[in-house]
Structures are given as structure tokens and as C-alpha cells.
Design goal:
By secondary structure, the protein is an all-alpha fold. 74% of the residues lie in helices and 3% in strands. It has 2 domains: 1-20 and 100-230, Fumarate Reductase Cytochrome B subunit (Up-down Bundle), CATH 1.20.950.20; 22-86. The protein has helices at 2-11, 22-43, 56-83, 85-95, 100-115, 129-154, 161-190, 197-204, 209-215, 217-229, and strands at 16-18, 206-208.
Length: 230
């Protein structure tokens, strides 16, 4: 770690570095829009104010929108895989790779984000430990959404009532988990002053080298500096 920190201190310049490819950004926004539509149309069932949207022609339109968004939701990772396979597998591997630097980040995250101090924050990879946890949750719930969604969409009447009800329960619990993390994610990238460049990176693909140094120092050294040297 000391080598990485030393390299960062001597080589950081205020220039832009590519953080997300075009395919990554496209997949992210397809996922975001699809998830938002799925959440909105799904809430029609549970919020009494929206009950008129569950019956008649409005109900048919809501169900159609939900199913169309579900297809887009499943397509999003395929876009990522097909058009940016190297980054897809790199990101997938990093999400499942945890080490002492990740646990150190988790121990110091509250102090850093609540007070704006980074004293003991260890250099992170392309994703910090919080982002890794979010990614893992998204991966697990994506699988659960697809499986239970297919049962709810095509299995009614052909699967047992117990299987159908368990699918609904798992589907709803997955929604709760993703919504909680979605709210935290939205706050950090859109509101928190230390993370503002995260949202611009999803539009423009780049962050300043200074931001990368502070939040993703390990990735900056291993994937940016070393690539420049080749």
C-alpha cells in the first residue's frame, strides 16, 4: 500500500481520466430508467392513492409498461457484456474480490463521509467497498428478479399457489433491498459534495485525476498509470 500512496503523491496531475466506457454508461442508464419504471408501476399495487392505475385500461397500460421495463432491465447487462466485455468481467471480478483494504474502508467510511476527512481511508480499486456491496446486491437481486418475475409473468395457473406466493414474497423483499441501497447511492452521487464527480462520470465517462486519486487510488495506479507506461 505504501508504494501505491507514494506513486500517487508524485504522479497525480489535474487531468481527466476515463472511468467508464460508453457501453458501461449506456448499460447504467438503461438499468436506471428500467428500474425506475419497474418501481413506479410496481408501487401502484401497494399504494392506495395509485389504485386507479391498477384497473381498466390504466391497469393494462401499467402492466404493459412494467413488462417492457422488465425486458429493458434484463437487456442492460447484455449491453455491457457485448460492447465492453473486458470491463464487464473486470468489474464482475472486482465486485467479488474482497481484501483488507475493503474492510478498512468500511471501518472508516462513516467518519469520512460525515466529516469529510480521509485520514485512514486506504486506496481503493475501481469500486470502493460500499460500491462493491451495492454491486453484489444488484447482482443477487437481478437473478432473483428475473427468476421470480418469470414465475409471476408466465407461471400463474401453471405453478402451485405456494410457489407463486413465495415468488411474490422474494420479489418484494428484493425490491426493498434494492430501493434502500438505491436511495443511499442516489444521495452519495447526486448530493454528497465529496462524490459529485461520480454522477458526471456517468454522463461524460471521465473524472479528474485528483478525484480518482482520493477515491480510487489503487485503480488509478494499476489501470491508468501503468497503462500509460506500456
Amino acid at each position: 500500500m505504501s508504494t501505491i500512496v507514494s506513486d500517487l503523491r508524485t504522479r497525480t496531475r489535474q487531468v481527466l481520466v476515463l472511468r467508464f466506457t460508453g457501453a458501461e454508461r449506456t448499460a447504467h442508464w438503461v438499468h436506471f430508467v428500467a428500474f425506475t419504471v419497474l418501481l413506479g408501476t410496481g408501487l401502484f399495487i401497494y399504494v392506495p392513492w395509485f389504485k386507479p392505475f391498477t384497473i381498466g385500461e390504466a391497469g393494462e397500460a401499467a402492466r404493459l409498461a412494467h413488462r417492457a421495463a422488465a425486458v429493458a432491465f434484463m437487456i442492460a447487462p447484455i449491453i455491457y457484456l457485448v460492447f465492453s466485455p473486458r470491463e464487464f468481467f473486470y468489474s464482475l471480478k472486482e465486485s467479488f474480490t474482497w481484501g483488507k483494504d475493503d474492510w478498512s474502508w468500511l471501518q472508516n467510511a462513516w467518519h469520512y463521509y460525515s466529516r469529510g476527512h480521509n485520514g485512514n481511508m486506504t486506496p481503493q480499486g475501481k469500486y470502493n467497498a460500499g460500491q462493491k456491496f451495492n454491486a453484489l446486491t444488484q447482482i443477487v437481486t437481478f437473478v432473483l428478479f428475473v427468476i421470480t418475475g418469470f414465475v409471476m409473468w408466465f407461471g400463474k395457473g401453471s405453478v402451485s399457489p405456494d410457489v407463486f406466493m413465495w415468488s411474490v414474497l422474494v420479489h418484494d423483499l428484493s425490491v426493498i433491498a434494492t430501493v434502500l441501497l438505491f436511495m443511499l447511492h442516489l444521495y452519495l452521487v447526486a448530493v454528497h459534495p465529496l462524490m459529485r464527480e461520480s454522477i458526471t462520470a456517468m454522463f461524460e465517462g471521465t473524472v479528474t485525476e485528483e478525484f480518482a486519486k482520493e477515491h480510487h487510488g489503487k485503480w488509478l495506479v494499476e489501470r491508468v498509470y501503468r497503462k500509460r507506461e506500456k
